Amino acid sequence: MEKAQVVLEEVMTHAIAAARRARAAAADGSDQHGEAMAFAYYDMVDVIREQADLLGIEWADRTLAVFVPESLLGRPDSSRE
């Protein structure tokens, strides 16, 4: 696996985790900007995924390969986190 792909997967993994934290904070009322932050992370993850698809990058991390960015929108599902 190329270094660039390793970095891309690491950024994607951290952005997904940050989006989930932001959603949870918005849901429990501890962050009034949580929903906006979650959407911003969703947008970033979606762009990364689109560009990776255009470049023909195959995710080494199978979790990322099947990840659906839209799952970052809406209320958090505590059974998945």
Structure, briefly:
The protein is mainly α and 81 residues long. It has helices spanning 3-27, 34-55, 62-66. Helix 1 packs antiparallel against helix 2.
Description:
- By secondary structure, the chain is mostly helical.
- The protein has one domain.
- It is 64% helix and 0% strand.
- The chain contains three helices and no strands.
- The protein has helices at 3-27, 34-55, 62-66.
- Helix 1 (3-27) packs antiparallel against helix 2 (34-55).
- It is elongated, with a radius of gyration of 13 Å.
- The mean pLDDT is 89.
Primary descriptors:
64% helix
Shape: elongated
Radius of gyration: 13 Å
Q: Report the span from N to C terminus.
A: 28 Å
The secondary-structure class comes to mainly alpha
Number of domains: 1
Q: How would you spell out the order of helices and strands?
A: HHH
Low-pLDDT regions: none
How many runs of DSSP E, i.e. beta strands?
A: 0
Percent of residues in beta strands?
under 5%
Q: What is the averaged pLDDT score?
A: 89
| Helical percentage | 55-70%
- Provide a count of the helices: 3
